[in-house]
Amino acid sequence: MKKPSMISILLFLTGLLCIIALIFFNRTTLHQILTTEKEVDTISEQITAKHDEVKQAVDNYTTAIDTVQSNINRMKQKQQTATQKKTKEKAEIPEESSSKPSVFSQNSTSAPSDSSAGVFSSDAETDGHIIGIDPGHQSESVDMSAPEPNGPGSSEMKAKCTSGTQGTYSGVPEYQLNLEVSLQLKDELEQRGYQVVMTRTDNETAISNMERAQYAAAQGAEIYVRIHANGDDSHTASGALTMSPSQNNPYIPQLFEQSDRLSRCIIDSYCAATGFQNLGIQYTDTMTGINWSTVPVTILEMGFMTSQNDDLKMNDTEFQKTMVQGIANGIDSYFAS
Predict the structure, then answer these.
(1) What is the number of structural domains in the chain?
(2) What residue stretches are annotated with the MurNAc-LAA domain (predicted)?
(3) Count of alpha carbons within 13 angstroms of residue 208, beta-carbon side
């Protein structure tokens, strides 16, 4: 048998190496293709998830816009009704000055005169406990930037009043929300047999935080409940809380125990009714409206207007009825304990 030549052997080996190389290349390529397909599937899933997130965000934004527009329309309707009412009243009574000065003399801290008392709501003739209700803040159209003492005899001065925060999702100003809830609370308390003193019944009355506390006490209020809403830069904070003077308050330390009990009764009942997170009581000695009070006092921060859940619920007409029930239940609890 003739031996193969060296050239034949080399050709055979070369061919064999080529075959082996092709097999290895095909396996590597197949692995790369499978890996790439998995990566493509992963990216596709991520894109789908992002698409769903964007769609949800768009839906939330659309809902918020619709709510804002609804609230704006509601406020316009209320303003139109108020304007028509004022026009009718002007036609029935002699024309008065268009300006609304403070219900207190700038040089006196005494109670307002009988002529100014008509700006407010009180019912001193009926039986029942007398409740002072203060709808916090007021319209920015009223300039209340002038300073007043932070407390009796205090050298620290603070602005007489501010307009407060605003709903991030509802677009409703805090002063408007506070007034809406307070007016409903007045009606509910009166139905329960209480007398109610309101520090304001519109958004333009010029009355400072100090004057509000003095007015409520001068009208015989046994407790002073200040209605507010909260705000936070994070937009994640939510829930309700009450604010009370501390045990070491330099102006009204004698009101600590009763104010603390009032604050506890209201926040517990309010959160039980609304389902809002109960953030408890915060003790503060920096609030002018607290420091000038001469009766047990609390501030209810009903919820965060920077929280989508809190803001939209607080500005829902039906939910406001639940809020009012919770506050009134807390006042019942205070007088029952």
Answers:
(1) 2
(2) 213-332
(3) 26
Question: Of 37-41, 214-218, 265-269, 318-322, which range is least confident?
Answer: 37-41
Whether residues 274 and 178 fall in one domain = yes
CA distances to 55, 118, 145, 183, 316 from 330, rounded to whole Å, are: 42, 28, 33, 17, 21
Dump pLDDT digits (tens) for 26-85.
Answer: 777 777 777 887 888 888 788 888 777 777 766 765 665 666 566 566 665 655 665 555
Is the entire prediction scored with pTM above 0.85? no
Of 192, 169, 167, 168, nearest in space to 180 by CA = 167
Q: Judge contact between 297 and 255, C-beta under 8 A.
A: yes
Looking up residue 298, the CATH number of its domain turns out to be: 3.40.630.40
Tokens of 312: 């939209």
Q: Record the tokens describing residue 302, joined without a space.
A: 């009903």
If pLDDT is split at 50, 70 and 90, which confidence band does 99 have? very low
Strands 195-198 and 223-230: what pairing? unpaired
DSSP 156: -
333 Cβ contact list (under 8 Å, min separation 6) = 265, 268, 269
Domain encompassing residue 30: 9-85
Phi-psi region of 112 (alpha: psi -120 to 50; beta: other; left: phi over 0): beta
Please state, as a whole number, how many other Cβ atoms lie within 10 Å of the Cβ of residue 164.
Answer: 21
In 93-204, which residue ranges form alpha helices assigned H by DSSP?
A: 114-117, 174-191
81/143 same-domain check? no
Tens of pLDDT, residues 126-185? 358 999 999 999 999 999 999 999 999 999 999 999 999 999 999 999 999 999 999 999
Tell me, yes or no, whether 74 and 149 share the same domain: no
Phi and psi angles of residue 273, each rounded to the nearest 5 degrees, phi first: -75, -45
Within a domain: 91 = no
Q: Does 259 score more than 70 pLDDT?
A: yes
